[in-house]
Protein translocase subunit SecE
Amino acid sequence: MEKFTSFLKASWEEITQHVTWPPFNELQANTTLVLVGSLIFAFVVGIMDFVFENALNLFYQSF
């Protein structure tokens, strides 16, 4: 148990004393960038899925 509490204390010290946290506005900008990128990626994958589904349906109906 002593090792675990030592680990927690060292982790807390690392987080509070040694980690450089970005300013809130930079964090907000990066979050927005990730959200927009994820939405664009989802839209592109959705369009590809729609196109391939319709192309395969046309192909299968031709036989």
In short: Residues 14 and 63 are 65 Å apart (CA to CA). The first helix runs from residue 2 to 18. The radius of gyration is 24 Å.
